[in-house]
Amino acid sequence: QVQLVESGGGLVQPGGSLRLSCTASGMIYSIANMGWYRQTSDKERELVATAMSNTNTHYGDSVKGRFTISRDDAKNTVWLQMNNLKAEDTAVYYCHAEVRSGIRYNPYWGQGTQVTVSS
């Protein structure tokens, strides 16, 4: 079994910064793609940022230039550094990972962490 646990969400002012963390635990051989998605009540869940490695990353258009994703495979952890936050960044952020426990990779989701950007 694999579990993803997120932390770092909270309330921040517009223009401020926040850093999210997600750590995978359990029977893990390796992790392929790992990253973050977000969702509000009136929008579909959207990609924020993913990383196959620290040199192979992908960002959603709305966060490019403001967010940075990084990972440490030795710790099975991925971070999302969010700078210059805007009100429209308010959402529940979900960690996602493709985890290999045996032969194949399987997708896992965290429970989500609330990020609220407001003055």
Structural class by SSE content: mainly beta
Order of helices and strands: EEEEEEEEEEE
> What share of residues are in beta strands?
over 45%
CA distance, first residue to last residue: 40 Å
Radius of gyration: 14 Å
Task: Enumerate how many helices there are, as a single number.
Answer: 0
The major beta sheet can be summarized as:
7 strands, mixed
The number of strands is 11
User: Which parts are unreliable, with pLDDT below 50 for 5 consecutive residues or more?
Assistant: none
* Overall shape: globular
Q: Which bin fits the share of residues in helices?
A: under 10%
Word description of this protein:
This protein has strands spanning 2-7, 10-12, 18-26, 30-39, 46-53, 56-59, 67-72, 77-82, 91-100, 105-109, 113-117. It is mostly beta strands. Strand 4 (30-39) and strand 5 (46-53) form a beta hairpin.
Give a concise summary.
This protein is mostly beta strands. The chain has strands spanning 2-7, 10-12, 18-26, 30-39, 46-53, 56-59, 67-72, 77-82, 91-100, 105-109, 113-117.
